[in-house]
Amino acid sequence: MGSFTTSKSDEEDSRARPQWREAVATGLYHSGALRIFQAISRYYELVPSNQRSLPRLRRTTRPKFAILCYHRIGIGGIPLFSDLPTEVFEAEMRFLRSHYRVVSLDALCEEMEKPTRNGNAVAITFDDGYRDLHTCALPALQKYQIPATIFLPVVSIETGQVPWYDRIFLAVKIFPKDDLEILFDRPQRYRLISDKARLQAATEIIQYLRTLPDSRRKEHCENLEKQVTLPSEELKDRMLTWDQIRAMYRAGITFGSHTMTHPVVSQLTEAQLESELSESKRLLEERIAGPALHFAFPFGKLADCGTAALPVLVRCGYRSAATTVEGVNVPGGGLFELRRTHVGGERSVSMFACKLTQLFFSAGVISNNVSSVSSPLAGETFSDSGQRQARANDA
After folding, report:
1. What's this model's pTM, rounded to 2 decimal places?
2. How many domains does the chain divide into?
3. What number is the average pLDDT over the span 21-47?
């Protein structure tokens, strides 16, 4: 059935949306003005405004490190929430190779700990391990000699089954009625009158499930799937195989853990957290016969990360952990709270180029303060509290 089709009403909505951003991006890109802004961003950053002042430029001497987060490359089929034409991805890689210094995640971590004079840099990452990373992304990465890290939900690779949220997107997409009722804390009814409405309903369901303990989340997923039979042809051959992963590893691609089952880390019990982080690393290293030093938090926003994971990450021997908190990283920043920026929704190189330029204009932070959501230790960052606890455990 492919991805969500576009209904007539959706097409009308799309045409009604303002196109000025695309027009401005295209003008900046083709006029050469974007190159000027890119050059300025190496030496200046934009300090956000507050209620009393306007945004202002200030000079910066620190290098900045952007980590880009993709999901799938290609169109049609799972995941339904993301697609990116292969030719656009290749154009983006060509642009990066021509205009930015592209480094591996290992090198980025090294430079954050021991700054060099090499300046700003970009690292490429992919979440979830979809099969089109082998068929569509790898050729472009090799063509332009782009290093990359892929974060794997290990159970999905072991079984070949897509992650739980993909199953929800698919279940809502094919639900046979126009009304879907689910009992959460109270009954919730979703009107599925268009493809756009179905996509929005699935997104809202997943967002709610992210706030629940993992056992309750699993119960709701099972109950939803009892109401609809998922078509096997939509689920088959969507994930990377271990043979493909080993071939990519030999070709220079780095692999990291995205847990075992892609839960919300902050919603795990202590035992679940230990299992998800340690077993995924152990099994991944066993399968590729090499180290897996990097971790990415599933979903990755502040509330998804929590504060309990860091001592486990340290104890398991991870070198870094990536969030999806937007922004750039700077020397001295915490390696266990790396900021990443979602990309893949842009449909032109000009929009991609503008996003990168805007990203590097943003002010870097020493601490990403992942712990600010729920840390019991006021004033401590995620890394501070976790490393203190890890030291206490070791003692």
Report:
1. 0.87
2. 2
3. 84
